Each structure stands twice: as C-alpha cells, then as structure tokens.
C-alpha cells in the first residue's frame, strides 16, 4: 500500500511542517490569521496574496480587539474556504454548500478540547492566566501598555506562536483527509470564480 503524499509530504510531515512554519511566522512576522493561512497554504504548495492580504484585519481576535475569534482559527477557515468554499456560481443560485464549514467545525472541536474556546481573549486566559486587551477603546488604535505586557509575557515569543502552530497543523491534517493525494496541487488557480 502506497502512502498518500501531497507535494511529496506525508500527512505527518505536512502537519509537522505546518506547525513549524506557523510558529515561526507568528514569532517573526506576527498576525496570527495571516501566519496560519501562510503555513497551511505553504505546506500544501500554494499561496494566495489576495486572501492573505484580506486576513490582515483578523489578527488579535478580529481587528486586534481580542473579543472575536482567534486569528489562528480564522486563518485556517480561510484555507478551508479556498479549497472547499462555495463558489460564486453556487452563491448566485443560492445553492447550499458547507464542506468548508464542516472542516471548520472539526477545527472548532480541536480548539474547544485544547483551549475551551475559539475567542482570542479567552484563549489568552487559558495560556497566560489573563486576557490582554490590545484595543485602545477610547481613542481606537493599539493599547501600547497592554501590547508591551503581552510581549513581556511571551506573547510573540512562544505563547501565540504555539497556538498558530497547532492551528496550522490541525488545519493541514483536516485538509489532508479531503484533498486528493499523490499530486502537486500548486497549480490551483487563485482567481477561479467558480463559473
């Protein structure tokens, strides 16, 4: 029996590499949503600059508020949607298509098992013992005092990079089970309208 490979990687190798890329991306470049998407797509052999750019505002629990979904969760959802999302044609015909959402629900279960939540600030409580609030709610923008405390607590050193690494590995494994194997998928077009 042959071992399934995608881009010459086994499932275990892909998950391990996704963790490594995700961890290093978050530690060195920040933005949990972009780092997760980058890790998953890199392992699977593809990059999409438009989706990557659109994920910018999903960092830090959505718009750096820490009140929304963890960016590592959101970045993985974007990868699921890239491969298995509803097309424009399906949308225009009001055709339901939830394959990417089913993958998202599987990832949600992994987050719930590990952190008890997918909410950024609540994950902070789990991994730091407190929630950091990056948003300056009075003036909008970044609360520099909170961000400094976050960094001093290992925020971009080990804590959030580990969350990104795990989400990237989980997403790669979940996609692995759905994608066809033994081929290079890097030729998938990034501008397929689905029509």
Summary tags:
195 residues; 9 helices; globular; disordered C terminus
What is the compact description of this entry?
This protein is mainly alpha-helical and 195 residues long. The chain has helices at 11-29, 32-44, 49-54, 71-84, 88-92, 99-115, 120-128, 144-152, 155-178.
List the helices and strands and how they pair.
Elements: H1 11-29, H2 32-44, H3 49-54, H4 71-84, H5 88-92, H6 99-115, H7 120-128, H8 144-152, H9 155-178
3D structure, described in words:
There is one protein chain. By secondary structure, the protein is mostly helical. It has one domain. 59% of the residues lie in helices and 0% in strands. The chain has helices at residues 11-29, 32-44, 49-54, 71-84, 88-92, 99-115, 120-128, 144-152, 155-178. The longest helix is centred in the last third of the chain and has 24 residues, at 155-178. The protein is globular, with a radius of gyration of 17 Å. The chain starts with 10 loop residues before the first helix and ends in a 17-residue tail after the last helix.
């Amino acid at each position: 029996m042959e071992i399934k490979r995608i881009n010459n990687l086994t499932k275990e190798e892909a998950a391990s590499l996704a963790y490594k890329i995700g961890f290093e991306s978050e530690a060195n470049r920040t933005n949990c949503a972009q780092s997760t998407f980058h890790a998953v797509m890199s392992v699977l052999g593809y990059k999409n600059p438009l989706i990557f750019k659109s994920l910018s505002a999903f960092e830090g629990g959505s718009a750096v508020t820490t009140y929304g979904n963890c960016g590592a969760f959101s970045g993985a959802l974007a990868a699921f949607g890239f491969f298995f999302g509803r097309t424009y044609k399906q949308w225009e015909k009001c055709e339901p298509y939830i394959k990417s959402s089913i993958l998202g629900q599987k990832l949600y279960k992994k987050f719930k098992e590990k952190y008890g939540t997918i909410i950024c600030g609540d994950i902070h409580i789990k991994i730091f013992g407190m929630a950091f609030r990056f948003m300056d709610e009075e003036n909008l923008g970044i609360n520099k005092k909170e961000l400094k405390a976050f960094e001093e607590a290992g925020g971009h050193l080990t804590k959030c990079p580990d969350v990104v690494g795990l989400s990237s590995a989980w997403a790669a494994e979940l996609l692995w089970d759905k994608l066809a194997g033994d081929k290079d998928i890097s030729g998938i077009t990034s501008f397929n309208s689905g029509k």
